[in-house]
Every structure is written in structure tokens, then in C-alpha cells.
Inverse folding.
């Protein structure tokens, strides 16, 4: 598997062969703001054979394949510095996200800007920094975490930012095709994390989301829907 980083998480799987061969020998990087999907990605990447996983906030581990790194996706210098230190990566997982639960008409402009700065511009900063690295390492993959609120309404600035990220991902897929970089968009429902702990609704396990992403990478899919009620949301993901 590849090398990976998460918060941005970068990973580099080797395509072909069985599930355990998909990411052997690669590095991964993953970016995130709210636990614990990041930990689930680290576990999944290692389980699928990643040689190294760079993680912003990994769980305590003595596994030499898991390397803790510092990253603030809202800081261009932080992103640039991380990219310089992790040039062996061939899978990048953009999982950084913030949620300020307010209706748009009652949201402070600075809160809307902060949401977009992390959820949209943070992902773009990471993509711009790692695109040359992915190209140099054979193409690799870029994974962006969207949401079912990419197309559903009612989630305020968060939903608007995820819709923007979906559009950004589609454009990046076209731009990165020439260098053979696989761009995967992940439309997730409510994931059982601290970010949405106060919301009383059925949630999907972070481990299941991470496994669905591993399967989608292996299959070469452009998008994957990770939600408890698949049929309810599937129409918007076509």
C-alpha cells in the first residue's frame, strides 16, 4: 500500500491483487479537524497494507508505520511544510472539516468564512501542495470527504461548503487525470464522531466509512456513498 497522511491523510496503495495488497509499500496522509474518522482511516490503511501512514492526530500507537505530523489546513505554510516532509506519499485523504450548526440567515459572516476556509480552501491547499508529489510518485489518489449535504439542503454553511467541495473535487478530477491521479469523492451521512455527538439521529460507523473508501479506491470509483439509509440519499449522488 502507499504512504498516507490524514487530517490530511496521505496514503499510497499499490493497485492490483487482493485487498491486503492494495496499499502495500505506499504512504498515506490524512487531514481532519474532528475525531474520529481519521483514526478509522489510519486503521483501514494499515489493515490494507500501508507501509506508512502520516496522521495529524493518530491514536497512541507503537506501530512504526504510523507517523504523527502537525498540520493546520487553514495555514498555507503549514500545508507546504508538511508536503515537504512527506514526499513519499501517494494517497492523500482530505478529511478536515468544521461544523458550526447555525442557519445561514443567523450565521455570523466570520463563521461562514471559517467553515469555507477549512472545508473548501483547506482541501484545495492540500490538493495544490500534493499534486506534484502524487505525479512524481506515479499518480496515486486524492480522497475528498464530502457529505450527503453536498446536495441536500438544511445544513447551513456546512452544507454549502460541502457542495462547493463536491464541485471542487469534480474539477480536480479533470485537472489531475493527465497525471493519472485517481480522485475519489466520499459522500458520507452522519458519522458517529464527536462533531455530531449532540445530534440525535442514526449514525454510520467511522470504520465502515473507511472500509467503503478502501473498496472504492481498489475499484477505481469516482464517488462513494457512505450512509446508513443508502436508498434515501442515492438519487442525489448519481
Amino acid at each position: 500500500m502507499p504512504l498516507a497522511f490524514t487530517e490530511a491523510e496521505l496514503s499510497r496503495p499499490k493497485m492490483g491483487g487482493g485487498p491486503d495488497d492494495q496499499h502495500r509499500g505506499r504512504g498515506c496522509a490524512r487531514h481532519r479537524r474532528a475525531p474520529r474518522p481519521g483514526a478509522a482511516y489510519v486503521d483501514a490503511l494499515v489493515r490494507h497494507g500501508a507501509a506508512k501512514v502520516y496522521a495529524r492526530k493518530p491514536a497512541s500507537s507503537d506501530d512504526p508505520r504510523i507517523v504523527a505530523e502537525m498540520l493546520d489546513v487553514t495555514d498555507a505554510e503549514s500545508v507546504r511544510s508538511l508536503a515537504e516532509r512527506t514526499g513519499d506519499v501517494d494517497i492523500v485523504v482530505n478529511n478536515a472539516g468544521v461544523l458550526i450548526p447555525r442557519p445561514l440567515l443567523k450565521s455570523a459572516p466570520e463563521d461562514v468564512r471559517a467553515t469555507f476556509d477549512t472545508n473548501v480552501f483547506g482541501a484545495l491547499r492540500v490538493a495544490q501542495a500534493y499534486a506534484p508529489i502524487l505525479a512524481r510518485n506515479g499518480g496515486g489518489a486524492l480522497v475528498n470527504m464530502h457529505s450527503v449535504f453536498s446536495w441536500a439542503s438544511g445544513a447551513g454553511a456546512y452544507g454549502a461548503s460541502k457542495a462547493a467541495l463536491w464541485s471542487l473535487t469534480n474539477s480536480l478530477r479533470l485537472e489531475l487525470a493527465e497525471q493519472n491521479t485517481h480522485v475519489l469523492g466520499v459522500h458520507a451521512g452522519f458519522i458517529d464522531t464527536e462533531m455530531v455527538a449532540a445530534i440525535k439521529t442514526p449514525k454510520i460507523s467511522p470504520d465502515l466509512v473507511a472500509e467503503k473508501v478502501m473498496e472504492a479506491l481498489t475499484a477505481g470509483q469516482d464517488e462513494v456513498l457512505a450512509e446508513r439509509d443508502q436508498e434515501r440519499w442515492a438519487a442525489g449522488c448519481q
The chain has one domain: 2-237. Residues 5-26, 31-35, 229-238 have pLDDT under 50 and may be disordered. The domain at 2-237 is CATH 3.40.50.720 (Rossmann fold).
